[in-house]
């Protein structure tokens, strides 16, 4: 089964469709990353920028913005309620997938991901610009109810570790086994113990993506997760280190494979591995 990538037919939009729609006033394009460095060096024409750390989080707490704050933020970027938001970013859409998940959690339904994100757009040598447009603030009102079932918490993980619930640890095999504390490009001195939640299946997020950043086919994805016992017959929780890679896997399971009950544990290992008394397992 092919993934639906045209406007209006599914959670993804492909680069061809977006390139043909850059002047469409019903589309709002937003680049999301952990900072704005790449955006400032070049971005999709007309795109706005969201700083994942500074704008989507309710600093100084480790939590994300409320529904009211999210609506105000999108409005400040010139996005109105009647537009379809297309998120994209680097790192194979890690942070763009987080923004997509947060919107769904807060009740915003008219959102999509650019299949392949920044990587595919650049590989195809599509237009980029350093220019930013004057933003005209818009009125953004969230139409739908919040969906708290899309978010998991530490106590949910402890319960699943005890009952054998389906969990996907999307980190690298080294992080899962406890050999390393974080992705190799990050400092390894971290304020938490090494290992994983007992009973979790290790399916690194990257196994769901092609080299150009696009998602694999539904058949390939179903085989990938089903082969590790993740069927979607029961509730599934995805987690990583800080919640962005697991958002990518949440998107695959919920939006592409259509599993009925999938939650993202945004606290992830940073919270769980720092907790006292929770069950932890090391080794593959």
Q: What is the CATH superfamily classification of the largest domain?
A: Rhodanese-like domain
Radius of gyration based on Cα positions: 18 Å
CATH class identity of the largest domain: Alpha Beta
Termini, distance in Å?
A: 32 Å
Largest beta-sheet details: 5 strands, parallel
What's the architecture of the largest domain in CATH terms?
3-Layer(aba) Sandwich
**Topology as H/E string?**
EHEHEHHEHEHHEHEHEHEH
Number of individual domains: 2
Total beta-strand segments:
9
Strand content of the residues, in percent? 5-15%
Structural class: alpha/beta
In which order are the strands of the major sheet placed? 1-5-4-2-3
What is the CATH topology descriptor of the largest domain?
Oxidized Rhodanese, domain 1
Put simply, the count of helices is 11
Helix content percent band:
25-40%
Uncertain stretches of 5 or more adjacent residues: none
Overall pLDDT: 92
Q: Which outline best applies?
A: globular
């Amino acid at each position: 089964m092919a993934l639906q990538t045209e406007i209006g037919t599914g959670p993804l939009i492909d680069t061809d469709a977006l390139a043909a729609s850059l002047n469409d006033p019903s589309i709002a394009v937003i680049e999301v990353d952990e900072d704005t460095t790449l955006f400032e060096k070049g971005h999709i024409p007309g795109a706005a920028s969201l700083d994942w750390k500074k704008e989507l989080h309710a600093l100084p707490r480790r939590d994300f913005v409320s529904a009211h704050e999210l609506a105000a933020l999108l409005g400040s970027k010139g996005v109105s309620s009647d537009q379809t938001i297309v998120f994209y970013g680097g790192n194979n859409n890690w942070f763009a997938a987080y923004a997509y998940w947060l919107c769904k959690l807060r009740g915003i339904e008219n959102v999509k991901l650019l299949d392949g994100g920044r990587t595919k757009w650049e590989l195809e040598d599509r237009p980029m610009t350093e220019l930013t447009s004057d933003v005209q603030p818009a009125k953004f009102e969230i139409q739908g109810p919040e969906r708290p079932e899309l978010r998991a918490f530490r106590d949910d993980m402890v319960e699943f570790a005890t009952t054998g619930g389906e969990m996907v640890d999307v980190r690298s095999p080294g992080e899962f086994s406890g050999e390393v504390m974080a992705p190799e490009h990050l400092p390894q001195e971290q304020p938490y113990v090494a290992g994983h939640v007992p009973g979790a299946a290790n399916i690194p997020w990257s196994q769901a993506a092609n080299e150009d950043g696009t998602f694999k086919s539904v058949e390939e994805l179903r085989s990938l997760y089903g082969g590790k016992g993740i069927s979607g017959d029961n509730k599934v929780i995805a987690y990583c280190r800080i919640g962005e890679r697991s958002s990518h896997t949440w998107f695959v399971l919920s939006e592409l494979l259509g599993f009925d009950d999938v939650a993202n544990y945004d606290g992830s290992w940073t919270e769980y591995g720092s907790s006292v008394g929770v069950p932890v397992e090391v080794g593959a």
